[in-house]
Design a protein that fits this description.
Blueprint: E1 2-4, H1 8-13, E2 24-26, E3 33-36, E4 39-43, E5 46-57, E6 85-98, E7 103-117, E8 123-137
Antiparallel strand pairs: 1-2, 3-5, 4-5, 5-6, 6-7, 7-8
Length: about 140
């Protein structure tokens, strides 16, 4: 990943950065993402599923950007938890197709654990739980 500061010229003119340093930095980050979602069809009109998702992402702290470089075009980012903020999502649901495939009802329960970055490299575990229900009616017919 290569990042460039769009305001580097203005910062150099104001004396806030080393005018001889490059205006960007390089860093390598691997953000794994794993998803599994088996489905079961107990009846012709009903499909059930379970989903598990694990992902990692770069921390949104520091405005989502990287800290200043080391003067040689390399980001001065230590390989720490800041680069591996993870999330776990569990979801189970059902999708029904009834009334001659004109009414569709979807329901799901979910739970997600995330790490929320805070100020001064602090982190907090956040859990969200919920239930979703959706109904969609699509009448069959010919329209001119």
């Amino acid at each position: 990943m290569k990042v460039n500061d769009p305001l580097y010229g203005e910062a150099a003119a104001a004396g806030n950065v080393n005018p001889y340093a490059p205006p960007g930095a390089h860093a390598s980050v691997i953000d794994p993402n794993f998803n599994v979602s088996p489905t079961f069809k107990p009846w012709k009109w009903l499909t059930t599923y379970f989903t598990y998702n694990y992902s990692q992402a770069y921390s949104a702290g520091n405005g989502g950007g990287f800290p200043a470089g080391d003067g040689n075009g390399h980001a001065t980012i230590p390989v720490t938890n800041e680069l591996h903020v993870h999330s776990d999502l569990y979801e189970a649901g059902a999708k029904a197709s009834i009334l001659g495939d004109t009414l569709f009802i979807n329901t799901a329960f979910f739970q997600q654990h995330r790490i929320q970055p805070g100020i001064a490299a602090t982190y907090a575990r956040d859990t969200a739980r919920g239930f979703e229900i959706e109904a969609d009616y699509q009448p069959a017919g010919t329209f001119i």
